[in-house]
Automatic annotation (TrEMBL):
Coiled coil: none annotated. GO terms for molecular function: hydrolase activity. Residues 28-50, 80-137 are annotated as: Disordered. Residues 101-110 have a biased composition (Basic and acidic residues). This is Alpha/beta hydrolase fold-3 domain-containing protein. Belongs to the 'GDXG' lipolytic enzyme family. InterPro entries: AB_hydrolase_3 (IPR013094), AB_hydrolase_fold (IPR029058), Carboxylest/Gibb_receptor (IPR050466). Pfam families: Abhydrolase_3. Signal peptide: none annotated. Residues 165-426 form the Alpha/beta hydrolase fold-3 domain.
Amino acid sequence: MPSVAVKLYSVFFKFLLKHRLQNRIQTPLDESNPFGVTSRPEESVAAPNPSFADGVATKDIHIDSFTSLSIRIFLPESALNPPEPKPIDSKPRPRSNSKNVDPEQTEKLSFRRNSYGSFNVGADTKREESRRSSYGSDMDALNLRSDVYRGYAPVDSNRRKLPVILQFHGGGWVSGSNDSVANDYFCRRISRLCDVIVVAVGYRLAPENRYPAAFDDGLKVLNWLGKQANLAECSKSMGSGRGGGGGGVSVESKKGDGNRHIVDAFGASMVEPWLAAHGDPSRCVLLGVSCGANIADYVARKAVEAGRLLDPVKVVAQVLMYPFFIGSVPTHSEIKLANSYFYDKAMCMLAWKLFLPEEEFSLDHLVANPLVEGRGPPLKFMPPTLTVVAEHDWMRDRAIAYSEELRKVNVDAPVLEYKDAVHEFATLDMLLKTPQAHACAEDIAIWVKKYISLRGHEFSY
């Protein structure tokens, strides 16, 4: 059973959440405003940190002038250095000694989870001369010196191309944000463990923007990622890449310096330099948390339908963490665990009423129930899907049932169930540093690496 501290915090959490949801229902809103909001005033946010102070640099970008849609990019410091060669005669090391494991968690775990389906895991260089941006303007003219702004822009050298994970936060459609303290911590952990660029999506919240706003935002970011890759390729072919690595950026770099002081030319180019230099969109993974898992599954289905229209973006896998699924016919867990911790069923019903328009409200809506017919495309075309569920979560059975349907059509769709765990056990602020939260992130990294490793360098277990 969950600890006493978790039980007490759950009571306090549900009291506050219910109060906020009722206020949202009672407060008249201008739903005709498409700009919307992506975070709430009560949400504690983490400031972006572009200096690799803890091994991961972050920056925020507002990518749509017509809405509040934004993203936070997480770039691991490993992108700056070539991968270390592995000794041929080296023996496999236990995962707790892995280079990418979070330093605060190293203890052994024996209670991890049950698995459903297949889970096959088998000295300083000379300061570079000032460069010119893609527009031909000297960065000194823009007064963006590296000793003023401790940012990062890629240097003109052989760069590693890292996979990209699009991450969608949780919060029951009405709360949460991509730059919250908890989400920032979780994304940093995933970026380090998986050695990937994480793009956390700040989609519009309900009830200011009801369905399909959040789903449209998720798909818009996926298309934006493809545009970035195509623009970077065009920039390179036109010869502008020599000025700053395909992004129109100027660079002053000290390779031996742990705190790299490099300039980012804000607004100097349409190309996002971090993604242009280090991102490999052909190895894209979708990761959704709670209601964010619903968005991830929707985006994956749309990616399958789009096919080669999304080139060079290719969704190779998705991770659904305790997806926010529901249905009109209750499952066993929905009956037995209706009053479960943090997010009980009655509270989630309020969230769905705030999210779905009144004329479309149905527990068997296409985005609410993954088992209804007519969702499309055929499940056999869906990407490999890892589902994470918690023992004390009323949503678990429907998530497991969806995974079973995927496996019936030969999609790699394992389920990890964590014992004595509650909804959002790996992403909620007070639970982020628990052994189970760390174990979950490690398990996700192991599975994801099967699909993002370059051919010939796959991991063996």
